[in-house]
Amino acid sequence: MNEEIRAREVRLVSSTNEQLGIMLLRDALRLAVEQNLDLVEVAPTAKPPVCRIMDFGKFRYEQQKRDKEVKKKQKVVALKEVKLRPNIEDHDFNVKLKNAQRFLEDGDKVKVTIMFRGRELSHPELGKQVLVRMASLLKEMANIERDAKLEGKNMIMIVAPKPNNNTQSST
């Protein structure tokens, strides 16, 4: 920008996007100063480099506004967790199922974890049955992103919302 530009000659574009041609850097800077604007290098790798006369402060402000708008429209997918035990009762299971459904409706992924303690670890098939039951009840609103897998003392399965389900909840 302005005096920081190191090229001797530059291709100049006016503030109205009009090509002013190739000229010496000092002449381009003089034109920018006469208009109370900045000389900004927009294509430094071109031969000669391309510079534009613009209000750099205004340009940065508008760029920040555009970035903020783009960020506002993004949907951040969080990973929520539901913890269960292999010998969970029906009512407790249904409460955890409702929580998982609510998370999926909000567009978040759900990590379903079965925690094993002590001798329960010698029967991982009991935890697998609970996860299969959970997956079968969630299959209409979710896809299994990662199948049940034993990691240490926990068995983990990750479920993601189906894409068509996500668009309905955002409107």
Automatic annotation (TrEMBL):
Any one Gene Ontology cellular component term annotated for this protein: cytosol
Location(s), subcellular: Cytoplasm
Domain Translation initiation factor 3 C-terminal: start-end pairs: 78-162
Signal sequence bounds: none
Record bears the keyword Transport: no
Subunit structure: Monomer.
PANTHER family cross-referenced by the UniProt entry: TRANSLATION INITIATION FACTOR IF-3, TRANSLATION INITIATION FACTOR IF-3, MITOCHONDRIAL
Protein name: Translation initiation factor IF-3
Species this chain originates from: Sporomusa malonica
